[in-house]
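Case study 2.
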Amino acid sequence: MKLRINPLAYQDLLEIKSYIAIELLNPEAADDIVRNIIAAYNRLSDFPFMGQSLSAIIGITTDYRYLVSGSYIIFYKIENEFVSVYRVLYGKRDYVRVLFSNQLSNEFDE
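Prediction:
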C-alpha cells in the first residue's frame, strides 16, 4: 500500500522533535524518537493492519487505527490503496478530544 502523511502528522513530528530538543534539552533523544516514529509508520505500507482499531478502546465509531511507538501514538486510516497517517500524539494527551473535537462539541450543543 502507498503511505500518505497528513500535514497535521508532519507538524506533530516537528513539534515533538522541537519540544524534546529545546524544552528538554536533548536533541539526540529528539532525533531518535522521531526516527523511531517514522520507522514505525513506514512499516504500515507493508502491514497496514498491524495497528489496532481505535473503536475497540473508545466509545466512538471510527475507522481510525492506531500504532504505538514508545510514548507516542500514530493514528491512521486505511483508505483504498493508501495508508494515511493523520496524527502522531503523545500517549498521555487527551487524544480522543484532539481527534474528535468536532464530534464532541456537536454532542454537547444538542
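The helical segments are 7-23, 27-42, 95-109.
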